[in-house]
């Protein structure tokens, strides 16, 4: 971008960019701020969970004074030290100086600009870090919604570049983070990670109590944890900042999502790779344990696989899923199911049902009677990568129909949703017609893992019908937690651009990226077969990208000319390519 966004009252102070709400005279005064021994400083970079930590620490120090917390905004109970807003009548220094002890004070300043007495007194400093990708996304939406940053109309791509260069209010995240990470050995500095708070809030509150030297009973800690959940704070007028004139919550509220891994919904593949390289160049030597995503999963609808399986084993019964029962409503949302559809367990379909017969492969996926070729194409890609498959299919060798598997009619799969792995439990009832599976199935009649995977995905969507029409890219994201990106062929029309596109695809293939392809269809063109055998609106999985030398003769060996080729797989397993190099 040529012209960088200019903040209202923008200025540089000792190499750090600030907006006009942190003017030079205030920053000068902050350095000389009179620190007390019982002060507690909340130190964060913007959008790292500041309000969250302010509320938690204030409630801890006040022994859980929920009555006062319900009557006074958090920004008055815990002032923003370097902030000055004449309209809001909020001047951090003026609020902090007369406050009774113990004070809870917020700052976004790096170490070099913090009060000089911070490490000379016996005060406590709670530093909260958040992974930079999620933080960057959150800061972008804050820039869009807050007039404090001016009328920001920049794109996401432009903001990422601004963030990396430190051309945002309060300067470089990288410089800020390095400065406070280097303070972690000081006895009065405690570092906590946003992601740990999201994983187990109560546990982290107990740790913070220990650092602050506060002993609270379990009931108070439990209530603080409930009061400071994301939903509670977003609905709390004392913490949600809906009263702040400068924030347009219709564009984006201050408390937006509060999730881990949401960056995957914003970063393109290239942006992610570029960001990683930049991060490594600036931060690699520090080895800070940031969590970009969560590895653990959440039980969908509170159904815990191991608990439910243990209950079934004790009762000697087969599991029937009350949340996704073998009924019409699990098949369709718009109509009743046909009367000839019968739900059957695999042992009623095959004499020797197996989860896998000879391992997983792309041949395990043949599309059924619903238009979810996009999902089938995504599954075919996953099946070829054992490492990815184990993410989607947990306990991969412990699920099956034998005594060894402790079969009791329950299976589970994992999908990536909103920055978190979701563990979905299903029973093994499958819809059939005349004894045959009507939806996704394996070419091997007694193999059922692919049909159960589709059932778990349908449960996540509400019913099978909801899987009709979609994008293979989204299916791949849901089964990997990866970053999805679309490429339009019409953007690569010239020969030079076609070479560039092939290079991108081949590099992606060699890096084990998952790829699919489709032809755009309009109206009645949907699923119309073309003369070459390809089907419009149909999703294909891409399973090879290579340069092929034509011919097998000795002359062809020395012929340097190669042809660029991409191999696709049809989830239908029916229509075939009829053009050059086809079987015909």
Automatic annotation (TrEMBL):
Pfam family, one: Sulfotransfer_1
Enzyme class name: hydrolase
GO terms for MF: calcium-dependent cysteine-type endopeptidase activity; sulfotransferase activity
EC number: 3.4.22.-
Keyword Disulfide bond: no
InterPro entries, A to Z: Calpain_cysteine_protease (IPR022684), P-loop_NTPase (IPR027417), Papain-like_cys_pep_sf (IPR038765), Pept_cys_AS (IPR000169), Peptidase_C2_calpain_cat (IPR001300), Sulfotransferase_dom (IPR000863)
One biological process term in Gene Ontology: proteolysis
Record carries keyword Iron: no
All copies of domain Calpain catalytic, residue ranges: 318-584
Coiled-coil stretches noted in the UniProt entry, renumbered to this chain: none
Catalytic-site annotation from UniProt: 373, 538, 570
Key words, A-Z: Hydrolase, Protease, Thiol protease
Protein name listed in UniProt: Calpain-5
Source species of the chain: Mytilus galloprovincialis
């Amino acid at each position: 971008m040529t012209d960088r966004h200019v903040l209202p009252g923008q200025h540089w102070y000792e190499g750090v960019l600030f907006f006009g709400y942190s003017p030079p005279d205030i920053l000068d005064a902050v350095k000389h701020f009179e620190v007390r021994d019982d002060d507690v400083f909340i130190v964060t970079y913007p959008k790292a969970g500041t309000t969250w930590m302010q509320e938690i620490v204030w409630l801890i120090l006040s022994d859980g004074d929920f009555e006062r917390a319900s009557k006074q905004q958090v920004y008055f109970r815990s002032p923003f030290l370097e902030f000055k807003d004449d309209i809001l009548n909020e001047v951090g220094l003026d609020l902090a100086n007369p406050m009774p002890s113990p004070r809870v004070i917020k700052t976004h300043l790096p170490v070099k600009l913090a009060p000089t007495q911070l490490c000379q007194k016996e005060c406590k400093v709670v530093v909260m870090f958040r992974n930079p990708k999620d933080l960057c996304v959150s800061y972008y939406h804050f820039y869009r919604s807050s007039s404090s940053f001016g009328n920001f109309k920049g794109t996401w791509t432009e903001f990422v570049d601004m963030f990396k260069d430190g051309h945002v209010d309060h300067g470089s995240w990288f410089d800020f983070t390095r400065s406070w990470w280097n303070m972690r050995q000081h006895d009065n500095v405690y570092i906590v990670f946003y992601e740990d708070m999201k994983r187990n809030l109560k546990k982290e509150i107990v740790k913070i109590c220990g650092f602050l030297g506060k002993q609270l009973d379990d009931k108070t800690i439990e209530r603080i944890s409930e009061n400071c959940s994301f939903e509670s704070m977003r609905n709390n007028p004392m913490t949600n900042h809906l009263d702040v004139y400068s924030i347009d919550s219709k564009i984006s509220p201050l408390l937006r999502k509060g999730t881990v891994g949401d960056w995957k919904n914003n970063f393109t593949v290239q942006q992610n790779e570029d960001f990683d390289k930049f991060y490594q160049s600036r931060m690699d030597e520090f080895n800070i344990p940031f969590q970009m995503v969560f590895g653990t999963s959440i039980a969908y609808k509170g159904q815990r696989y191991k608990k439910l399986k243990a209950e079934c084993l004790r009762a000697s019964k087969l599991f029937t899923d009350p949340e996704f029962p073998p009924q019409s409503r699990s098949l369709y949302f718009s109509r009743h199911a046909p009367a000839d559809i019968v739900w059957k367990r695999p042992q009623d379909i095959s004499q020797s049902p197996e989860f896998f017969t000879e391992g997983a492969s792309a041949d395990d996926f043949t599309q059924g009677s619903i238009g979810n070729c996009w999902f089938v194409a995504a599954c075919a890609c996953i099946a070829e990568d054992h490492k990815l498959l184990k993410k989607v299919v947990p306990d991969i060798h412990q699920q099956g129909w034998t005594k060894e598997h402790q079969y009791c009619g329950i299976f589970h799969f994992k999908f990536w949703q909103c920055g978190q792995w979701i563990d979905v439990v299903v029973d093994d009832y499958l819809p059939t017609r005349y004894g045959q599976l009507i939806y996704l199935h394996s070419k091997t009649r007694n193999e059922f893992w692919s049909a159960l995977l589709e059932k778990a995905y349908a449960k996540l969507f509400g019913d099978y019908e909801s899987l009709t029409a979609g994008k293979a890219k989204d299916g791949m994201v849901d089964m990997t937690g990866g970053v999805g990106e679309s490429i339009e062929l019409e953007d690569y029309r010239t020969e030079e651009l076609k070479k560039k596109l092939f290079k991108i695809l081949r590099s992606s293939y060699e890096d084990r990226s998952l790829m699919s392809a489709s032809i755009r269809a309009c109206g009645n063109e949907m699923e119309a077969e073309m003369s070459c055998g390809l089907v419009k609106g149909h999703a294909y999985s891409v399973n090879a990208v290579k340069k092929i030398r034509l011919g097998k003769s000795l002359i062809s060996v020395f012929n340097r000319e190669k042809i660029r080729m991409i191999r696709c797989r049809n989830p239908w397993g029916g229509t075939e390519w009829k053009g050059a190099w086809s079987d015909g």
